[in-house]
Amino acid sequence: MQAIKGIGDFIFASVSTDSILILRVFKSRLAGLGEDERESAYVQSDKVVFSAEPIGELGKNGFISGAGHFPLVGDNIFAADDVVVERIFSSIGDHLISLGTVNNYDNVHPDLNLGKILTSHIAILGNTGSGKSTTLRALLQKIGEVQSELNPLVSFFVFDVHGDYEGLSFAQGIDVTQTHLPLNKLELDDWAAALMPSERTQKPLLSRSLSIARVLPDHSQIVYALLTKDALENTNQNSLSGLKRLVTKWIKKVFPEDSAVNQDLDQWVLNFGNEEGKQKLVKRVSDFLNDYPYKDVNEIINSVSSDVNFTLNELEEAFEVVFGEEEVKGNNRVRGNTETFMARFRNFKSRYGNSDGILNENHGEELTLKVGDSPRKTKIYILNLVGLDDDALRLVSTYLARQVFEFNKRKFRNKTEKDSMPFDYLYLDEAHRYVRNSADDSSTIFETIAREGRKFSVYLGVVSQIPNELSKVVMSQTGAFLIHRIQNALDLDFIKRNVPAATSGMVDRLPSLPSGTALLSGSAFDIPFEINVLAGDLGEVSKSRNPIQRSK
């Protein structure tokens, strides 16, 4: 006997002698009610009207997505049984993995096309408690079970923000909090991700400060002398007192133990409108600089290697130098315009620059996801990021993503190394915290990978409970969506506009999906459909503790 259980069921109609049209039910209502009328307990009817949408044709060559033929009015429509549904999915998977059963068909375990999934960026979305973390754990476990089918250079890196993936028997852990980031390898975009400077004003100051920080370890006195020289030659200050304050600050760093400097400064005065004593200071600084070949700070920067190491203290001092350069030019508002930016840096330095911080070069080994050309011992790695705040999370994730992308990009460009280019998968938990829309026109490394990563075998997986806060660029390049229960109106609207193949009827069902059920949609799936993820014990990790104790 054939029966329809409800929304999500498959039905079919004969459209030729050797093929049937497959449709999916997306709406139902009692017969006798209008489209906009609500059902009531007082309405009695033994008939139900179902609305369905065509998804493809099933024939002797298997299932083909899309419909070219339609039944006539009055033709019979039949409910699809397990055999029909099994035939649909057996012809669109690659027989490597299955995550569960088709919703409403408990005996049908659909094969997924792992080849398409692994050549796509993926997104696993859903409210807290809907099962998205469990789905990722199940997906990784299934991939681990067929790793002999994968290229030896395939690696998966899960960015674990809350500890939801620790202890998985099929994965190896990397405790990021017990390593350090080498400051000399961090680039402007890495720092910008953490400190979030404004694009037009603060980011150029950050760039300049990073350049100066690299010269301070060996050339600090020369930098201070050049800054003093610029201040003494400056004509932008409104008063001698303002100019003298700048000169005093820097010249004492050039001659820290020379008491005569204080006397020279005291003799630099205005006497009845005439400036006196300045030339002694000018000569003192000029004599010092005569021993060095540099005319300005830029010449020092150009003479120093870009990979010279420096400390956070030297970076903080470099900010002071840059502020000094701006103040010499008459920009007396530079400090006020960077208060929030500098407060974020000082907090960052205080929290992560100490003896057990990730920005202390003496703390643990250097953090890296690259181990040369040889395959890693296992394919799945869990990066423990628990305890990092949003600033540090943005820095670490940006640095590691850029490191992987640039490594593969160099391999790709070298014809002799192209075949040894790894396949790297970066699966980002709580992605809305660091894969966000830019406040300006700047582009992040995640958006670069979203657009170009496939060419260099780098793929993203974003896991999030707040889809509307994710980067629209990343989402637009995503090919595989696994969407659990979502109830927020903004998120539902975002999914309607950004998830291909997901019809309004499918999205309207998302708020009522039970935990563990997901809508699969996107170019990696021949048809969108709902799946009940069978994760077994993998789902226990995500269960919330019950505060209520019941007596026996």
UniProtKB/TrEMBL annotation:
Instruction: Report whether Nucleotide-binding shows up as a keyword of the record.
Output: yes
> Which Pfam family, giving just one, matches this sequence?
DUF87
> Which GO molecular function entries does the Swiss-Prot or TrEMBL record give?
ATP binding
Q: In terms of domain of life, where is this protein from?
A: Bacteria
Keywords from the UniProt entry: ATP-binding, Nucleotide-binding
- Give start and end of each AAA+ ATPase domain: 118-496
PANTHER family for the chain: HELICASE MJ1565-RELATED (PTHR42957)
Q: What is this protein called?
A: ATP-binding protein
